[in-house]
Write a structure and sequence with these properties.
Layout lengths: L1 H15 L1 H13 L2 H22 L1
Helix pairs in contact: 1-2
Length: about 55
């Protein structure tokens, strides 16, 4: 269910804002690896907190 929600949100973003999504991807390519890892880790932690809060 959660994966389907993520796909819907991503699909909406790419449908409504294709140019901004392209720019965001280009920006992500230029970010240092450690910044990407840190951002990913923060997203994981926030996701886990939300899951536990919903139980």
């Amino acid at each position: 269910m959660a994966l389907a929600f993520v796909l819907v949100v991503e699909g909406v973003l790419y449908t409504l804002f294709p140019e901004q999504m392209r720019k965001m991807m280009q920006m992500a390519v230029t970010l240092p690896e450690m910044t990407l890892r840190s951002t990913g880790l923060v997203a994981v932690v926030i996701g886990i907190i939300i899951i536990y809060a919903m139980k």
